[in-house]
Amino acid sequence: MKQIEVKIMGQAYLLGAPDGGEARLQAAVQRVDAAMCKIRDGGKIKARDRIAVLAALNMAYELTDAPPANDASAGSAAASAEPQPPALSVAEQATLGALLSRLDKALGDDGRLI
C-alpha cells in the first residue's frame, strides 16, 4: 500500500492507496474537494465538519439516483460529463433543513465559526 498526500479544501491529508489504485483515489479526492468547496463557496456554511457532512449526503444522494454501473451507454456519457447534484424539491429542502438543525443541536458550539 502506498501513502499519498492530498489536499481537500486546503487541508493536507496522508492517505493509504492500494497498489494501482492511486488514480482512483486522486479522482475521489478531487470529487470530494470540489463538492466541499462548492458548499463552502455558497457562503452559508463555514465549519469544515458540517461542510463534510453535507458533501457526503449530497454524494450519497447522487449515488442512489445513479443508473446501474453495467449500463455501458449511460456510463460512458456520465463519465465524460461533470456530475451535477440533483435539484432538490421543497420537501427535500425541508428535510435537509431539519437535518442541519439536528446537526446544529448535536454539535452545539463545536464547529461554528461565529
From TrEMBL:
**One Gene Ontology biological process:** septin ring assembly
Q: Which residues form the signal peptide?
A: none
Q: Where in the cell is it found?
A: Cytoplasm
Annotated InterPro entries: Cell_div_ZapA-like, Cell_div_ZapA-like_sf, Cell_div_ZapA_N
Provide the alphabetized UniProt keywords: Cell cycle, Cell division, Cytoplasm, Septation
Q: Which domain of life is it from?
A: Bacteria
Q: Does the keyword Transcription regulation apply?
A: no
Q: Look up the record and report any one GO term of the cellular component aspect.
A: cytosol
Principal location listed in the UniProt entry: cytoplasm
Complexes and interactors: Homodimer. Interacts with FtsZ.
Purpose of the protein = Activator of cell division through the inhibition of FtsZ GTPase activity, therefore promoting FtsZ assembly into bundles of protofilaments necessary for the formation of the division Z ring. It is recruited early at mid-cell but it is not essential for cell division.
**What is the name of the protein in this document?**
Cell division protein ZapA
